[in-house]
Specification:
heterodimer; A: Phosphoribosyl-aminoimidazole Synthetase, Chain A, domain 2; 2 domains; seven-stranded mixed β-sheet; 9 helices; 31% helix; B: Rossmann fold; 11 strands
Chain lengths: 334, 365
């Protein structure tokens, strides 16, 4: 039985070495990783950004991506959201015994592809195997280090009155793609997860203007939650227009059907940028030329009034408060 | 999106709003019966668009909200039975009962699963023949036929471990009960949309006849609701209360006869316990005798602790249309969707949750 992961694969013995050398290293190798020392030693200089993220998505494969691509992209994106250029990542697997080796190999191939696309190297890692039932197939933790270029000063607390709010594309694709695969809720949609590394998009935006004050990727909790975080951190009001927010038909249909508000549905390849009004148009133009910003739009602005609140002008011309996500998304019942 | 955008057309909405403004000279207090209507009104910010003469009030049309505490306690007691799987629609798991919630019971080891249809609940029963699969049957006339269908299917497939805790309720009788209480001062009712696709518009005819109150059945898109409001205002101005349909693409006066037959084959009318209102005669559905073996209440007798109502919670008055979420001392301060005290804050169609999440600038100062 060499086609599933066994507890012994995590024992540190021969099977562990086999797994690392045959299934992991060949795909991911680079000089720092290949040393297989207890820690990776490297030189870097400047100002750093450091972040970590754990991934427990269920199912591990979904339309448009898998847990491997997600693990790379989300850490790359967290670094990018502070304006950093991601350089090195760590990669740590917690595997439930019984996972098919083929599935693990598929995830590793996807990690390799995503890391190459983002231009980052995985320089250290770990593998543990736990008893059946102690994890759900596969959990992945990634941490990352990035270098923050000079002159970049991005923080959720930096939004200023008058700034414009840019969104890099349509919302809700990831959440709906994953949900469409969940047990008990299988429905077929044309929606693909938007899971993507945004570091190159951010680098291009920063080349056009350093007056990018906040960057954030609206993952869990969706666009609504991210905008609320920014409004609170910066102690400003945010006013957006429903009409300006890009939304794919498939996501809209699924949300109508399930009673979800797309503003609260997760994204994995989108960013919100709060930028100086004078530079908004040229940043937008640049974003539109990147594959991950093709549908970018200016969706609103930062206001003096209604501090810490997000107000949305509805399609019908009325205004309503957009609050943070509370609880979990549950479909409606009648 | 086809068949959605047409009902959210901004130009048409503006025209309707202008027409309502021109028409309305008398005060029009309107109750939107359904939680779904409340959500659509709050989400679209419709109240701001209406003239000051038109006032909108939430009604009892949220099945989770009107489920009495004792019935929540009952569901939790069933969840704690050995060998039981509880299946339920999502909103129910968070509703606090007297001492606990299904969510809490689940964290303590009970097998509580969220399903999206009664067919999924039946499938779980099929896949677990050695366990008792109990579906928490909460809902109005919209849900009742689908539950009846699952029972008939279970009977045909000889699935004996499928049971329903039947908490189904009926809309026209509760409207009558509320109006008979005498505390509700309204001029018109935005009548349920989905419920009426099943029962039709005729069951509301006693309302204009006996109470002089205007009735218009409405759909759930902004234009549906604005059109219903316009028709109600027109009736009120002309003093000709009657039942009209603003949701003709879904509702016929006679309803869905097939669904009604299905419902009547499995259930019979009986009294029901409504939160904030109490036991209302002929306002609920129970199993007919020949389907008694599907009835969780008969198959699994449980003893319940005395019920305890949450202090300060005014969900009952909100459901009766005599108070609004803003009147509640707990609202926003001690009661939020993350820490709900009463059911109106739990359900996605609850008035408190809708006011909390979508409250427009009028409600939030």
């Amino acid at each position: 039985m060499d086609d599933t992961i066994l507890l012994a694969h995590g024992s540190g013995g021969k099977l562990s070495h086999d797994l690392i050398e045959k299934s992991l290293l060949p795909s991911l190798t680079n000089p720092l990783l290949a040393k297989l020392d207890d820690s990776a030693v490297f030189e870097l200089s400047g100002r750093f950004a450091f972040t970590t993220d754990s991934h427990v998505v269920n199912p591990i494969f979904f339309p448009g991506g898998d847990i491997g691509r997600l693990a790379i992209c989300s850490t790359v994106n967290d670094l990018s959201m502070s304006g950093a250029r991601p350089v090195y990542l760590s990669l740590s697997f917690i595997i439930e015994e019984g996972l098919y080796l083929e599935e693990l190999k598929k995830v590793v191939a996807s990690i390799k592809a995503a890391a190459e696309e983002a231009g980052v190297q995985i320089i250290t890692g770990d593998t543990k195997v736990v008893n059946h039932g102690a994890a759900d197939k596969l959990f992945i933790n990634t941490s990352g280090i990035g270098v923050v270029p000079q002159g970049v000063n991005i923080s959720g607390a930096n939004a200023r009155v008058g700034d414009k709010i840019l969104l890099s594309g349509a919302i809700g694709d990831h959440g709906i793609a994953v949900m469409s695969q969940r047990e008990g809720l299988r429905f077929s949609v044309s929606v693909q997860s938007d899971c993507a590394p945004l570091n190159k998009l951010v680098a291009e935006m920063l080349r056009v203007s350093l007056r990018i004050n906040c960057l954030r990727d609206p993952t869990r909790g969706g666009l609504a939650t991210t905008l609320n975080e920014l409004a609170r951190q910066s102690q400003v009001g945010i006013r957006i227009e429903e009409e300006k927010i890009p939304l794919h038909e498939g996501v809209r249909g699924a949300c109508e059907l399930l009673g979800f508000d797309p503003l609260y549905v997760a994204n994995e390849g989108k960013l919100v940028a709060v930028v100086a009004a004078g530079d908004a148009e040229k940043i937008l133009e640049k974003m539109k030329r990147n594959i991950y910003g093709a549908e970018a739009a200016i969706i609103g602005e930062v206001t003096q009034e209604r501090k810490s609140k997000v107000i949305m002008k509805t399609r019908l011309g009325a205004s309503r408060i957009v609050d943070m996500l509370t609880g979990e998304l549950l479909p409606r019942i009648c | 999106m086809k068949f959605i955008d047409e009902y959210r057309d901004m130009g048409l909405a503006k025209k309707l709003v202008a027409r309502i403004g021109r028409l309305s000279t008398k005060p029009a207090r309107l109750m939107e019966f359904c939680g779904g209507h409340t959500v659509a009104i709050m989400r679209g910010g419709l109240r701001q668009l209406l003239p000051p003469t038109v006032e909108m009030l939430s009604g009892p049309g949220c099945p989770v909200c009107v489920t009495a505490n004792t019935n929540i306690d009952w569901a939790i007691a069933l969840a704690r039975l050995p060998n039981a799987i509880i299946t339920t629609f999502g909103d129910m798991i968070k509703v606090p009962g007297s001492y606990s919630s299904l969510q809490q019971a689940r964290s303590e080891g009970a097998d509580v699963r969220i399903v999206y249809s009664t067919q999924d609940a039946l499938q779980i029963a099929r896949e677990n023949p050695n366990k008792s699969a109990i579906f928490i049957g909460v809902g109005f006339e919209t849900t009742a036929p689908t539950i009846a269908a699952s029972i008939l299917q279970a009977k045909a497939d000889k699935i004996s471990n499928f049971h329903i805790l039947c908490l189904l309720k009926l809309c026209p009788p509760i409207m009558k009960a509320l109006l008979d209480l005498g505390e509700l001062k309204i001029d018109g009712i935005v009548c349920p949309g989905h419920v009426s696709t099943i029962i039709g518009s005729r069951p509301y005819e006693f309302i204009p006849r006996d109470y002089g109150i205007a009735c218009v059945v409405s759909g759930f898109e902004p234009l549906d609701i604005l059109m219903a409001v316009e028709m109600l205002v027109q009736q009120i101005e002309e003093e000709r209360p009657q039942v009209e349909i603003a949701y003709r693409r879904g509702v016929k006066p006679e309803g869905n006869t097939r669904a009604l037959e299905l419902m009547e084959s499995v259930f019979q009318v009986d009294s029901a316990d409504w939160r904030g209102i109490g036991i209302v005669p002929a306002s609920g559905l129970v199993f007919k005798a020949e389907y008694g073996h599907f009835d969780a209440a008969q198959v699994f007798p449980v003893t319940l602790e005395p019920i305890k109502e949450a202090k300060g919670c005014i969900c009952g008055s909100i459901l009766r249309g005599v108070q609004t979420p803003g009147d509640c001392k707990l609202f926003r301060k001690f009661c939020s969707p993350d820490h709900p005290v009463g059911p109106c804050m739990v359900s996605s169609e609850g008035a408190c949750a809708a006011y909390y999440s979508y409250g427009d600038e009028m409600d939030n100062g």
